[in-house]
Write a structure and sequence with these properties.
Length: 69
Protein backbone atom coordinates (compact mmCIF):
# COMPACT_ATOMS: atom_id res chain seq x y z
CA UNK A 1 0.00 0.00 0.00
CA UNK A 2 1.67 3.25 -1.09
CA UNK A 3 2.15 5.79 1.68
CA UNK A 4 0.45 8.64 -0.21
CA UNK A 5 -2.69 6.55 -0.64
CA UNK A 6 -2.73 5.56 3.05
CA UNK A 7 -4.44 8.83 4.00
CA UNK A 8 -7.48 8.12 1.82
CA UNK A 9 -7.45 4.30 1.84
CA UNK A 10 -10.10 2.62 3.97
CA UNK A 11 -10.30 -1.07 4.83
CA UNK A 12 -14.08 -0.96 5.07
CA UNK A 13 -14.47 0.85 1.74
CA UNK A 14 -12.10 -1.58 0.06
CA UNK A 15 -14.01 -4.59 1.39
CA UNK A 16 -17.29 -3.04 0.18
CA UNK A 17 -15.74 -2.50 -3.26
CA UNK A 18 -14.60 -6.13 -3.40
CA UNK A 19 -18.09 -7.26 -2.41
CA UNK A 20 -19.55 -5.13 -5.23
CA UNK A 21 -17.07 -6.63 -7.70
CA UNK A 22 -18.01 -10.15 -6.56
CA UNK A 23 -21.69 -9.34 -7.10
CA UNK A 24 -20.90 -8.09 -10.61
CA UNK A 25 -18.88 -11.22 -11.37
CA UNK A 26 -21.61 -13.49 -10.04
CA UNK A 27 -24.25 -11.74 -12.13
CA UNK A 28 -22.77 -13.31 -15.25
CA UNK A 29 -23.66 -10.24 -17.28
CA UNK A 30 -20.14 -8.88 -17.80
CA UNK A 31 -18.11 -9.48 -20.96
CA UNK A 32 -14.96 -11.55 -20.48
CA UNK A 33 -12.61 -8.55 -20.64
CA UNK A 34 -14.57 -6.84 -17.87
CA UNK A 35 -14.57 -10.02 -15.78
CA UNK A 36 -10.79 -10.26 -16.01
CA UNK A 37 -10.36 -6.57 -15.19
CA UNK A 38 -12.76 -6.74 -12.24
CA UNK A 39 -11.09 -9.91 -10.96
CA UNK A 40 -7.67 -8.22 -11.11
CA UNK A 41 -9.01 -5.22 -9.18
CA UNK A 42 -10.49 -7.50 -6.52
CA UNK A 43 -7.22 -9.41 -6.10
CA UNK A 44 -5.25 -6.17 -5.73
CA UNK A 45 -7.75 -4.84 -3.19
CA UNK A 46 -7.60 -8.06 -1.19
CA UNK A 47 -3.81 -7.87 -1.16
CA UNK A 48 -4.07 -4.34 0.25
CA UNK A 49 -6.47 -5.61 2.92
CA UNK A 50 -4.12 -8.45 3.81
CA UNK A 51 -1.18 -6.05 4.17
CA UNK A 52 -3.27 -3.74 6.32
CA UNK A 53 -4.40 -6.59 8.59
CA UNK A 54 -0.84 -7.88 8.94
CA UNK A 55 0.36 -4.42 9.95
CA UNK A 56 -2.43 -4.08 12.51
CA UNK A 57 -1.71 -7.57 13.87
CA UNK A 58 1.94 -6.59 14.37
CA UNK A 59 0.83 -3.46 16.25
CA UNK A 60 -1.47 -5.50 18.48
CA UNK A 61 1.27 -8.05 19.14
CA UNK A 62 3.66 -5.26 20.11
CA UNK A 63 1.08 -3.73 22.47
CA UNK A 64 0.43 -7.11 24.09
CA UNK A 65 4.16 -7.65 24.44
CA UNK A 66 4.53 -4.23 26.05
CA UNK A 67 1.72 -4.99 28.51
CA UNK A 68 3.27 -8.35 29.40
CA UNK A 69 6.55 -6.72 30.44
Amino acid sequence: MPKKAADTWSYETTVANVEAIIADLESGSLPLAAVLSQFEQAVQALQQCETYLQEKQQQVDLLIETLAE
